[in-house]
């Protein structure tokens, strides 16, 4: 019989984003729900971004700029990088897939700390690469273990700091030591920093500042969290110009829609909204952390806009919170059974969450 589908698909579990808010609200018979399960911005998008989308709406019959030129130029000015060092994608998920398509071949090995963000493994396996898992040391990335697993077949190492879902960072000194140990013939090191805007630990490293010293480093960022543009799917990678050229060779034309580009461009200029978002998340994260500690809950100190909290009855507690209108993530679905993962919300939401806990 003719085989239609690639055998690798049989072993893949699709990423489960769950029902939409609207469908869940109908199912639960509630007029509205608060989603703390997706690490979204509690303030919503920048008003400047909303206005830019409204202005651009009448032009959606036109294809967007295929290279996101204006956005890359603005990002370059903001980050201190050349536009040729930046590629914009349909969320960080597409960028992870671009890396796999451009670099990974059957027989390659990709080291992935586990648990971590699911698309790392999915994209690598679709490209035919073999996943080499490196278990976390509790909630922390174990770079010594990762380094021991590097071989001549290692094509890439996937790192996440702040880590999703563990909330922890890779300390700057440890990261530099790891990159130095890899030497000049290093594999690609992908450093996903989607949550870096909420990291107030002075020991963290800004990956973009390391690119000149480590040309095989690839840094991922997103507008989904800090700018509140998750529904428009805009992420970007910063790397050497040579690396970005390779990504562009496999990137689909018009991969970032017109509304996403203008919204991201406007959000870059709204420093007040960024500051307000960071201030809210840091204040409410501290409030939640203190109140959870009072109640006897254990969790790693968060450097992101969410917490990963150990609980004794995660599935039942998640279901009860959902019935009360608050959506959280069961840690079992992200590699941490016996935990709940929930993002930092507004004070009213956080108080309701604490009272239900």
Question: Would you kindly provide a written description of the structure presented here, covering whatever features stand out?
Answer:
- There is one protein chain.
- With about 350 residues, the protein is α/β, with parallel strands linked by helices.
- It has 2 domains: about 5-45 and about 270-355, Aspartate Aminotransferase, domain 1, CATH 3.90.1150; about 45-270, Aspartate Aminotransferase, domain 2, CATH 3.40.640.10.
- It is about 35% helix and about 15% strand.
- It is built from 12 helices and 12 strands.
- It has a 7-stranded mixed beta sheet with strand order 2-8-7-6-5-3-4, with helices on both faces. Strands 9-12-11 form a 3-stranded antiparallel beta sheet, covered by helices on one side.
- A hairpin with an 8-residue loop joins strand 11 (about 330) and strand 12.
- Helix 2 (about 45-55) runs antiparallel to helix 9 and helix 10 (about 270-295) runs parallel beside helix 12.
- The longest helix has 24 residues, at about 270-295.
- The radius of gyration is 20 Å and the shape is globular.
- It starts with 20 loop residues before the first helix and ends with a helix.
- About 40% of the residues are buried.
Radius of gyration: 20 Å
Q: Using the coordinates above, name the CATH class of the largest domain.
A: Alpha Beta
The share of residues in helices is 25-40%
Distance between the termini: 55 Å
């Amino acid at each position: 019989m003719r085989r239609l589908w690639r055998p690798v698909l049989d072993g893949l579990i699709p990423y489960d984003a769950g029902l939409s808010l609207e469908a869940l609200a109908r199912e639960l018979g509630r007029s509205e729900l608060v989603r703390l399960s997706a690490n979204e911005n509690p303030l919503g998008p920048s008003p400047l971004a909303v206005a830019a989308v409204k202005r651009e709406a009448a032009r959606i019959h036109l294809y967007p700029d295929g290279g996101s030129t204006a956005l890359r130029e603005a990002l370059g000015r903001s980050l201190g990088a050349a536009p040729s060092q930046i590629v914009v994608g349909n969320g960080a998920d597409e960028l992870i897939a671009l890396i796999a398509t451009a670099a990974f071949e059957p027989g390659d090995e990709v080291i992935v700390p586990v648990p971590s963000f699911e698309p790392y493994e999915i994209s690598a396996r679709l490209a035919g690469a073999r996943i080499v898992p490196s278990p976390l040391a509790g909630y922390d990335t174990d770079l010594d273990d990762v380094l021991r697993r590097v071989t001549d077949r290692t094509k890439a190492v996937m790192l996440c700091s702040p880590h999703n879902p563990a909330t922890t960072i890779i300390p700057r000194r440890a990261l530099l030591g790891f990159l130095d140990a890899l030497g000049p013939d290093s594999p690609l090191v992908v450093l996903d920093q989607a949550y870096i805007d909420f990291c107030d630990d002075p020991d963290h490293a800004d990956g973009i500042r390391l690119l000149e010293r480590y040309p095989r480093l690839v840094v991922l960022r997103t507008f989904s969290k800090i700018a509140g543009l998750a529904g428009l799917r805009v992420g970007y990678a910063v790397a050497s110009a040579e690396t970005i050229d390779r990504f562009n060779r496999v990137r689909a034309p018009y991969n970032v829609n017109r509304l996403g580009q203008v919204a991201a461009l406007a959000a870059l200029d709204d420093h007040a909204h960024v500051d307000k978002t960071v201030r809210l998340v840091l204040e409410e994260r501290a409030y939640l952390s203190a109140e959870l500690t009072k109640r006897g809950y254990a969790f790693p100190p968060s450097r992101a806009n969410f917490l990963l909290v150990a609980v004794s009855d995660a599935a039942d507690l998640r279901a009860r919170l959902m019935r009360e209108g608050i959506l959280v993530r069961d840690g079992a679905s992200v590699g941490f059974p016996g935990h709940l993962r929930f993002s930092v919300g507004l004070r009213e939401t956080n108080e309701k969450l604490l009272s239900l806990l």
